[in-house]
Structure formats: structure tokens, C-alpha cells
Amino acid sequence: MLGGLRVIEIAPFYPGPFCTQILAEHGAEVIKVEPPNGDPMRFNPEMFAAINRNKKSVVLNLKEKSGVETFLRLAKTSDVIVEGFRPGVAKKLGIDYDAVKRVNERIIYCSISGFGQDSEFLDIPVHDINVLSMNGVCRITGLKIGKPLDPNVQLADFSSAMFAAVAILMALIKREKTGEGEYIDVSMYDSSFAAVPLHTSRYLNGGSDLDDFISNPGYDIYRTRDGFVSLGMLDEPHFWRNLCNALKLERYADLSYKERIRRYKEIRDEIEKAIAEYTLNEIFELFRKSNLPFGIVNDTSKGAELYRARGFLAKSFYGKEYTIASFPVAYKSTRLRRDGKAPELGENNDLLNFLLK
Hints:
Layout: E1 6-10, H1 15-25, E2 29-34, H2 45-50, E3 55-59, H3 65-76, E4 80-83, H4 89-93, H5 97-101, E5 108-113, H6 128-134, H7 137-141, H8 155-178, E6 182-187, H9 188-194, H10 197-204, H11 211-214, E7 219-223, E8 228-232, H12 237-246, H13 257-262, H14 264-275, H15 280-289, E9 294-296, H16 300-310, E10 313-318, E11 320-325, E12 340-341, H17 352-355
Parallel strand pairs: 1-2, 1-4, 2-3, 4-5, 5-6, 10-12
Antiparallel strand pairs: 7-8, 8-9, 10-11
């Protein structure tokens, strides 16, 4: 799909490399420009292998004039640049959008940072957990137990990478129509806040916590005799009635959604008592037969087993072979470049002369 597209990545850790990994899987040539010490993510080979397949690595010291000159020559023949420096750093180095545009007017230049290029917090270095704590998203994850959780899933990294990839593709379509390049400013803060619209729409319009997810007996996790099961019902009377009939709680079957939320504790206690009588296998069969939205709470090893069966796996070589979760979309007539090698530091420096032609 993206064959013939050249992308330069000057972004460490997660968001930038994951964004460009998506482009690489779809056929783009991704050139990873690293400092002499390399991408810090190299400290963990498994993580590095996961988001750097099928890329080239060149080492440039962008603090030296020769490194900047080489970078700009490379930018002249490229389509997209993804950078992940703190705001102001690219300009200080002389490789910001304005500098690149002078040598390549058609460039799509995407900056991914913690708070965006014009934020009052742009001087603060952050990782995912810092961003989620500042924009309140980690409070949302902890409402069920009444305290904020340290988020163990990197939502700010992931969402900013995905929004960046989408924005780049949009800009490329625009360039096809107009011939014009584009500058894209993506922030981890904004991306992760926008990634939970069901919650943030409530807060943005003067509301507070969403009862739909914290005081709804139909949207909760319950203990069985040997594990846990989740229910996932909002204002869906047919599912609610099916649940009540399955658990022999017919007295609650005709309650309105508002009434269920108002009587949350009472109803939740009754559902909990009923479910506690079943094993996981029994509750799985009962809920499946009853046409209910539910899920067994598996450990991640079981989740990996089920994902493996879906077929969206890749092999990534970096020191050794790793099994990686790849782009989880199937196309009817396009085959993605899933398997590949993550480059050693500076592995493709000898190709610079060829790349700069």
C-alpha cells in the first residue's frame, strides 16, 4: 500500500517508533535516525523488536554540523518525518519543519510530544504515566476502587502513535490532491484524553463521573467459584432481561436503566450472590446460551493464546527471534509486511550514500 514512501523517524521509545512501524508494515521504507548511543528503547530487546521491524538504522550526531547537513539531504528525498523531541529541540538542532521545508516543500512533518508544541508545560519531560496522571485519565481507571491507579497500559503512547499515523495518511491524501506538504502537531496529552470520549464528553459538558461504568450492575466484574467474569450492558433492556432470567432474578427484569443505577448496590449484591454459585465453565455456558455480553477474566497468557489463534502474529529478529503482535487488520487483497528484522544500531550507515542519491 505504501511502497515507494520514504519515512524518516527521529523519535525514541514508543509513540514515534510505533507510528512508523504501522507505516512500515504497510510497505513504507522507514529510516530510523539514531544518536550515537542509539534509541534508549534498545535496553529491552523484546520491546525494541516489537516496534522496529523492517526499518533501517543510521547513526547521525545531530549536534554536529555534518550530522545536520546529512539529515537535511536525507529529508530532501523523503516523504514523511516523524520526530519525538521535546518542543524546541528540533528547531535548536536545525532540523525542524521550517528547516526541512526549505529543502523539501512537499514534506509531511509530524511532531509527537507530551503536551504539544505550544503548551505551557512544553518544558517538562514526560512518559505515559505522567501524561495520564495530569489529564485525569488514570483517575477514570481507578474509580471502581476509589483511588487512582498507576496505569500499566501505555494509553498516551499508543493513542498518540495511532492519531499520528492517521494524520500522516490524511496529509498524504491532501498532498496527492494539492501538492502541498503539512506540519502535524500531536500531543500525548490530547491524544489520550480524546481516546476515551465516552468519559471526557461528560466532563467537557459540566458533568461528573459516568454512572454507566461505575454504578451500573450490568457493567461490572463478578467473582465465580473459581475466577471472575465481566458483564457489559448499558441501556439494553433485552440483555438485562436475559441476565435476570438466567440468574433467576426475574424480580429485577423490568427495571428501567435509571432504576438499576439508582439501586446499584442492592442489585449488584444479588447478582454477585447468584454468580458465586457457578464455576467459570458453568457461567460461560450459561451466559453464552442466554445471549449476554460477557467475558471471562483471563490472565494475559490465556489472552495471548487466543490472540495467537487469530493469526495476527509476526516474527521479529533482533539478536534472536521474537513473536510479536502485528497490525491486527486483515485486508482482502493486500498482504502486509509483518515479519522482519529490527535493525542493529547504525546497521545501514553504509547505505547513506545510496539513500542520499
